[in-house]
Amino acid sequence: MAAPAPGDPRAAASAVLDELARNFTYGARGAGNGSLSGAWYRRNQIHLFGVLLAILGNLVISISLNIQKYSHLRSAQQEHPRPYFRSVLWWGGVILMALGETGNFAAYGFAPITLIAPLGCVSVTGSAIISVMFLRENLRTSDLLGMTLALAGTYLLVNFAPNITQAISARTVQYYFVGWQFMIYMILEILIFCILLYFHKRKGMKHIVILLTLVALLASVTVISVKAVSGMITFSVTDKMQLTYPIFYIMCIIMIASCVFQVKLLNQATKLYNTATVVPVNHIFFTVSAIIAGIIFYQEFLGAAFLTIFIYLFGCFLSFLGVVLVTRNREKEHLPQSYIDFGNVPGKQMLDKIQPDSSGLSYGTLPDGSDSIKSPNGEKKGV
Q: What are the start and end residues of every segment in region (Disordered) (predicted)?
């Protein structure tokens, strides 16, 4: 069959179809993404290895969190509880946490930031599944819906993330570090950070949005430095030594310093607000800041098709919604009842709420601390 002539309407239709196909297939730098086919796997083995490391790392983190939680619960049930740092089980959770974070760190050396950062939703949903299976927590309808949405969002993220295979060498990091895009971005970020820090420290504003925005601004610097350090280590192992360049140690210092201050601010947020509120907001803020950092510093969406970007952002939205549904009102279901109320017993007069006393021999005492009550004729009787 002869090819259509240049002026033929079929030629225009064929060109549109070819362009749409390019938007859904991995190819040169900046091309769109494709379906999870065999050709897709062959072209993206390095990225998939990074995705596998990130998913495994986040699953190990979720296991470690539940182990530490179980350690605290078991310690609270003991008659003479020991400090948590003396528990072998708690230290096992800490070791698993370190292994999981190591997997996340290594993943940045094999895949773009915009692909690895949103996979943090795996840790949240995985923790919910493990807590239901091993800690006997309730499985709610919102949990099932949130896990489904998070899984669908993860599929779209992996399938439509930017296909940029960069060899992160010291010279590449230096080139991006002095780029005008990054300079403008850092000036704006430092300005916003200083303004929020002023309101937080001087004006005493401790709203969760202010605290977690400060954390997110630091997190954007953290992911940039983490990818730089991890990428240079990977490049040193696979190609040429990069650890002799000063930029490697500069990025190491930035990574450690930003992590320390980020954890400090995050601890302040967890002291003021419950975990069910902090976790989803922090995940959303961190992911957004990391994506912006990857786009500006490493130019990971350079030349990407509009449809690819739209589906990628839709996948982010699904994962965010899934995390919110999984964590919503979870802590309120496990609030311990600190007293026994006899006010609702039919035919009984309510005296007061008896407060349990775990350290004494008696179950509870009256509000004035005495162990006796007065009878109607004025005589005291022992409780």
A: 352-383
Residue 76 CA to residue 72 CA, distance in Å, equals 6
Q: In this predicted model, which residue has the larger pLDDT, 284 or 203? A: 284
Taking every pair of Cα atoms in the chain, the longest distance, rounded to a whole number of angstroms, is: 114
User: pLDDT, tens digit, for every residue of 140-171?
Assistant: 888 899 999 999 999 998 888 877 767 889 99
Question: Which of the residue ranges 31-45, 182-196, 265-279 would you say has the lowest mean pLDDT?
Answer: 31-45
Gap between the Cα atoms of 65 and 135, Å rounded: 12
Length of the chain: 383
Is the distance from CB of 343 to CB of 157 less than 8 angstroms?
no
Which helix (DSSP H) or strand (DSSP E) does residue 289 occupy? helix 275-297
Task: State mean pLDDT over 13-36.
Answer: 44
Q: Are 183 and 233 in contact (CB under 8 A)?
A: no
Would you state the pLDDT for residue 217?
Answer: 95
Two tokens at 185? Answer: 């971005």
CB 85 within 8 A of CB 28: no
Within 10 Å of residue 30's Cβ, how many Cβ atoms? 16
